[in-house]
Amino acid sequence: MPELPEVEALRAFLTDHLVGRGIVRVLPVAVSALKTYDPPLTALEGRTVTAVARHGKFLDVDAEGLHLVTHLARAGWLQWKDRLPDGAPRPGRSPLALRVALETGEGFDLTEAGTQKRLAVYVTEDPGTVPGIARLGPNPLSADFDEERFARLLAGERRQIKGALRDQSLIAGIGNAYSDEILHAARMSPFKIASNLTKEEVHGLHVALLATLTEAVERSRGVAAGRLKAEKKSGLRVHGRTGEKCPVCGDTIREVSFADSALQYCPTCQTGGKPLADRRMSRLLK
Q1: What is the average per-residue pLDDT within 228-250?
Q2: How many Cβ atoms from other residues are within 10 Å of residue 177's Cβ?
């Protein structure tokens, strides 16, 4: 799933490639992706892109006050085309969900792999009316996201820190991958209760959060849209690396599986050498 660093890189990429260019066609292919109907997609046609913004994991293309807002969800992606194919795309088994064509002949496709169709597209005059944006917590890379504010956010959270970091209404933009990376950098168990963190632990976690996200954004800066997924994977230390050696201590990276996701961690770095209970895997092995 694209998270804050990748969506920020896409924002920068689209700012360079879209701003000042006119939209000539917006072609829906997977109607299920379209979450709004008024204004219609066609209202974007004939407008010039004036800005591209990011709200958490949402991309926002501003075309003279009318916004094309996209959430790529777990399996969605944006594919830039220096030259779009001739003719209108046809619905079918293709992963293509939406195509935006520019006056220059360039454009981009929104695609979604897999069977769980969660990619979402909105057309609105106010991005704040999009439900997912309306509930977003603060941007962790904003100047006012200091340690004191972070501590206040965690103070009332009687849940595991892994889940708290992923909650978009608490902090915007962090997902499964970067929450694993942040916790590894902070040398903290993902099962630790957020409200029980000491002042020193909150400080260490805040430092790790800012450093991890900032480094990921810098690593992705200037990378073409088509290479961002590979760039993200290459920079991850523990997420998606079950069974590999921890790059810090050399211990074996472990996994805890859930119904529709999994977390990865290093026992030596994060849990005092003790493996975390993985009830789902235990049931499968019985």
Answers
A1: 93
A2: 24
